[in-house]
Amino acid sequence: MTTTTTTKPSFQTLTSPFKHNPPQLPLKLSRKPSKILCSQSPDHNSQQSPPKFVSLVSIIRSIPDWADGIKERRMKQRRPLYKHHDWVRHRSSVRHLRHLLSSFNSRVILSLVPPVIAFTSVAAVVASYNTAVVWHLLPEVFPVLRASSLPYQLTAPALALLLVFRTEASYSRFEEGRKAWGRVVSGTNDFARQVMVSVETDCLVKTALLQYIMAFPVALKCHLVNESDIGRELQDLLEDDDLAILLSSNHHPRCIIQFISQSMKLLELEETKRTVLESKVTCLHEGIGVCEQIVGIPIPLSYTRLTSRFLVLWHLTLPIILWDDCNWIVVPATFVSAASLFCIEEVGVLIEEPFQMLSLDELCIRVCENVQEAMKREKEIRETLIMKKEAASRGPSLNGHLTSGDEQKSRANSSSSSSR
């Protein structure tokens, strides 16, 4: 009998914040399956694996799973910020043709494949049944499925208002999320500017504080967007020991704020400047609260369920209502109605979670570029302003800019000669 021993890594290796070693966790997890494989033979494993059966439920679920997979993959795609050429293309007169040709690549349309196919199939079954009854292919006890269109005429405005209100409520959440993230971006830029202006000494702490400020939008984005790799996105902004502490925390944006607060304590600042910087930290806290409320609290579920049930019942009975007027045209009519109304409802569901639809990656990159550019230009701008301040006592130039003493003497001599 063979015994296997597992060597535990030291406590310092797992908890030390000064050395970040991500591969330790997968290595530790991979030892347990290897121990199990040593005690079992391949024949035993093949006998224990259950056979795979293709059931009717799995066949029916294959199309919705395929549509959901495409939709979720498209939701994770990176969305760029619009530039001038994007707006020109956006308002182009050929946009309608471009949108029509790209219909089969739209995640909204592909996600509607299951319900549209289902209701179109129901319409085809109803049309086939009524045709069989009319042609006396079935016994006379089977009636023709028909009904008055008056109930649909009365409930159509209610369905339209319900879809409009549902989409409007979702767009209001999208707008609120966009504004909240805009406040986070502007607050981060203003915070970095205040640090550059207020802190004149402690260059190391100042640089670290600016790095934490640049890391905050990235941490908040990874906190809001599912399946984000915060370690990979922050490895160029933070040091290894800081990143190790951040990854061990449960709430990454608040951990970044703790880094910012502790860094501000190490700075020797006046009380007024410290108060201004503390107010910027408060703005970051408010941004976290607003974004978490948007993600955690959806539109009331009863409202969403009512819209879905109304649409389903509407399209299940639509072929019966339209049979007398349309006959077999109920099949394409149901297809068009389901594709149109469910598309409106699907758009409302997609924009209900706004942070998946916003260009958060590009906004974070822009914040980092703006702060880094300001850090590079800070010394150059300060030296230029000091030179202008020294030349201020010599008088302004004719166009309002400060000039040197030699230029002023030459202009004085020229003015005196012209007066003579």
TrEMBL record:
Major localisation: membrane
GO cellular component terms, semicolon-separated: membrane
Bias-annotated ranges (Polar residues): 8-18
Protein name: Uncharacterized protein
Region feature (Disordered): 1-25, 388-420
Keywords: Ion transport, Membrane, Transmembrane, Transmembrane helix, Transport
Gene Ontology terms for molecular function: voltage-gated chloride channel activity
Topology of this chain in the membrane: Multi-pass membrane protein
Lineage: Eukaryota, Viridiplantae, Streptophyta, Embryophyta, Tracheophyta
Transmembrane segments: 108-129, 149-165
Subcellular location(s) per record: Membrane
InterPro entries reported for this sequence: VCCN1/2 (IPR024701), YneE/VCCN1/2-like (IPR044669)
Pfam families: Bestrophin_2
GO BP terms, alphabetized: regulation of photosynthesis, light reaction
